Amino acid sequence: MTNNELNVTKDMFKPAHVDASKSEKISKPSLNFWQDSWLRVRKNKGAVASLVVLVILVLLAFIGPYLTPYKYDTQVTANNNLPPRVQGLENVHWLPFDGTLTRKDGSTYNPYELRHVKNYYWFGTDGLGRDIFARIWKGSQISLLIAFVAAMIDMLIGVSYGAISGYVGGRVDSIMQRIVEILVGIPNLIVVVLMILVLKPGITPIIIAITITGWTSMSRVVRAQVLKFKNQEFVLAAKTLGASNASIIFKHMIPNMFGVIIINTMFSIPNAIFFEAFLSFIGLGLQEPNASLGTLINDGFTSMIAFPYQMIIPAIMISLLMITFNLIADGLRDALDPKMRD
């Protein structure tokens, strides 16, 4: 074949024209650490669903007591031990909101009709005639308050203590860690009993008892991170520029540990909720007429066979809180921990 048949020309051998301005163009927007972490959290469907459920529960904990005309501490003994009944659903017998109870022989009866009660109690009433719906949300409010306050105090004490111990090192670190080991060896229950003997039973002794020994795990995690960071280049550069030790710890190291701190704080919140519920269940928590999820479970446990709803409803509530916090913490761990990145 000839060149004319192949249509080969000299223009085909000229170098291609490349636009230098487009070669430096970024095809995707750059993301900072928190934006990238949020995208990773959004991929975790369990964490996103748990976050939505948790927001709903927290909102209901604060507005729930105002959705019912009954107060959480108002006793109406004539309406005691009434089952759940919701207006519009009382005729739907396959739902647990028709206001009926089952006897031991299997037969059902409607205590609302027998007592001629025209009121509607969405979650029923307890043995003293108090509205369980109002008490559930008031109890959730108090349990969340205790858990969040205890977790924040644990975070502040644990982060500061662990950072100072790890950064100073030497004999100071050795003494501080021995103190941590002593506190770890003290059972929380003994601390709670001592707090109740010194103070009146209530929210304050529970928060103090959880705080006294709860910050030790956070301090150990932060200390390990500080030991890893203190010989790295950015810390040496800060020392060279004359930064003080406090500035290096709180302005350079701790911001690089936000991911680990948030993860441990999120895991400590459900632990505090469970511990408060345990204390209230064994009678060392809040006293009447105050309510928490633990006191509600304790009250329902005594009449579980005859009136199971009095224990099932608060048990479902505390289970939802525990599951949602743990799933959110698990999703944050996958998103914020560099070792978990794909």
CATH superfamily of the domain at 51-71 and 136-340: MetI-like
Number of helices: 15
Helix percent band: 55-70%
Per the CATH scheme, the topology name of the domain at 51-71 and 136-340 is MetI-like fold
Task: Indicate the mean pLDDT.
Answer: 82
Please report the first level of CATH classification, the CATH class of the domain at 51-71 and 136-340: Mainly Alpha
How much of the sequence is in beta strands? under 5%
Order of helices and strands: HHHHEEHHHHHHHHHHH
The overall strand count is 2
CATH architecture of the domain at 51-71 and 136-340: Orthogonal Bundle
Shape estimate: flat
Please state the structural category: mainly alpha
Biggest β-sheet: strands ordered side by side in the sheet: 1-2
The largest sheet, given as strand count, sense and whether it forms a barrel, is: 2 strands, antiparallel
Runs with pLDDT <50, length 5+? none
Rg, alpha carbons? 30 Å
Distance between the termini: 55 Å
Label this structure with key terms:
342 residues; MetI-like fold; two-stranded antiparallel sheet; 2 strands; mainly alpha; 15 helices; flat
In short:
A two-stranded antiparallel ribbon has the order 1-2. It is mainly α and 342 residues long. It has helices at residues 3-6, 20-23, 33-43, 45-63, 111-115, 132-168, 170-184, 188-198, 203-214, 216-229, 233-240, 245-253, 258-281, 293-302, 309-336, and strands at 101-102, 108-109.
